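Let us work through a complete example step by step.
Step 1: write down the sequence.
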Amino acid sequence: MNNATRHHFKSIAYAGLEAGPRLIVTGAVHGNETCGTRAILRVIEEIEAGALALRGGAVTFVPVTNPLAYARGERTGDRNLNRNFNPTDRPVDFEDHIANWLCPLLARHDALLDLHSTRAQNPAFAMLGPEDNDGPLEPFAHFAQERALAMHLGVQRFVDGWLGTYATGVARRIEALRAGGREPNPLTTDPRYGVGTTEYMRAHGGWALTLECGQHDDPAAPEIGYRAIRNALAFLGISDAPPPAPAAAIESLSLYEVIDRAHAGDTFSRAWSSFNRLARGDLIGTRHDGTPVVAERDGFIVFPNVDAEVGNEWFYLARANN
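Step 2: predict the structure and record it as tokens.
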């Protein structure tokens, strides 16, 4: 028997007596990011014990979204679930089977809170969707609701611009491959490859937030996830807890550029972490042929990946919003 077939999918759902929004909370989309799982199980215990009462609407919890990756203690099972996340009539890998189960479940809800953690020791932050638009890439109509929930999760840093920046990088990637006489990889050169759980939710009429709760092994990360769930339930009126106060001071950043790793010999100039500040002219890294990669403007480096595969994202750049 294939090890993947030993796993099953599980969700736990609760509903209040009154009408209200439908929230879904997911943990362990990446199997080594367990803070969300621990936070979700803690909230479930409180509901079951009567310490947290639900008033209206509904909430569904998925403590372990990717059971194969979770059992291995690794980021992925067969592949990254948070890329190319869509149902398929012809599932090939384990993550395809997850998508076929999870996508219909997401579509039955109004909002998604997806709990993650990071490799680097960074303060918690939330990833937001685009402003309201009717464009072809990521049409959206719930920016106000999404931003309002984000402001009440208990974090102060917010980042947007993910899918648009990824798509721009894909276009440049295709151009570079063709200029070098190489055939594009159909996955890494498809803007839809950047679609994960939150992007899928927005594409199907809902709104969604990714909350990065901190470093994988930081004992504070599960507490941040737990507090965010409690705050979301209270803010949306699903629980009878008092509504949380909004963030008093925020840092708002927008991703605007992604740089691929073009060769295995491309190296960083230092051990970068997300949200390290960059000044114009700072040396970020060096290409294998000695070409320096420098910051063209003041800003921040985000998601630097020293182990990035050739032809994939090496790092992102972000700018501060007013």
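Step 3: interpret the result. The CA atoms of residues 138 and 212 lie 21 Å apart.
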